[in-house]
Amino acid sequence: MAGRSSSSSSTIARSRSPVLLCTLSLIGFSLLFFLFSLSSSTSRSPPSFHSVRAPDTSFLISLEHFLALRSPAPDDTVRPLADDDDRVTKLDDSLFRSESQRLYGAPYYPLNFPLRVYVYEMPRKFTYDLLWLFHDTYKQTSNLTSNGSPVHRLIVQHSIDYWLWADLIAPESERLLKNVVRVRRQAEADLFYIPFFTTISFFLLEKQQCKALYREALKWVTDQPAWKRSEGRDHVLPVHHPWSFKSVRRYMKNAIWLLPDMDSTGNWYKPGQVSLEKDLILPYVPNVDLCNARCLSESERRRTTLLFFRGRLKRNAGGKVRAKLVAELSGVSDVVIEEGTAGDAGKAAAQDGMRKSIFCLSPAGDTPSSARLFDAIVSGCIPVIVSDELELPFEGILDYRKIALFVSSSDAIQPGWLLTFLRNVSPAQIREMRSNLAKYSHHFIYSNPAQPLGPEDLVWRMVCCSLLLWLVRW
To answer: Where does the Exostosin GT47 domain start and stop, copy by copy (predicted)?
Structure first.
């Protein structure tokens, strides 16, 4: 049986028992119920909560609060570990007893149980120290990538690891998400969350220092009994920037990865490393502020630009289509195509342009995805997606056809085709899609505390699918 320790033949035989088969059936039924209940709720506005503090949606503000309240005193004490085989066997026995008790002790299991996540308490050099490094350096705007992008802004775009971890380790009294709970014992867990900040370490550490830290994190995680028991198949690992964690990815390919896209071109992920069967696509953190109901109403009469794009005009791989689109669309009176700039001024210009436009162009970047798509959604600007290889976040739950237009790259670069297509979209369809954007936008706003039907909530609902598939394969 793949992914299991062979230290006990009785353990292997037991895992094929009716307990497991019955559990799989019930989990499948509950998963359908779980996702159906969500699909019926996505058309409604998110619920209001007046008994808790207003959520922080700014990464910098939330990080300030988090570090002030949660960051512990330094403690990297190395504690001795028990014999590996003994720890794996004991954990396996504990999990079997726990699952049997839940299955036979609760008539509606697993419908009445939340997803149980064990959060590893890794040494702070993998967690808090990296957050402090970002906190202490984010004003250094001269730190750029090879293509001129400010690294701190990229870290914010890919900060899903922070938002998920901050919610999971918050006191239960402060949390609003009830479909996932943190457990303190590994034997009680459905999943194991690895809180390692792969993106911060990639961008803010020296190359060799980063690789060394990756190797240390790999050893720390793969030494855990839960990892050895399943070979990582029930572990969740955020790897949301395609450049991060590359040197050790192959050793953790069984884990459930949280990604920005699948990149089926093979430019960023090696064959066999990522798969829709086990991994999840999460939205980028928007660069612009949410245009709420009042903002949408006030901006309605100001949306006089037909099509807007502000960003890097030259990209690699699938993003090469940008240069062709610029050549096709430049000089049109009601179309704005601009090179992006960094800093607060660049953000303000992008936000203002999106709020004045009917459609926002969302072509591929260096990978099939782009943060610009999510900026458009939260700005009430209808995305025009030109990316042939794109996999979208929560695609099994959210119907993107209600909020975006999809155009093939070959059509988009044909002379006059794209503008004719957009001018033929009826005013009624535009109003309907903009109304849907208002309903969908909260699915893409990360916050602390995390909100029901926000991206943190949806990811755990989708993780249920990955967990079920893993159990079936196992």
So the answer is: 114-419
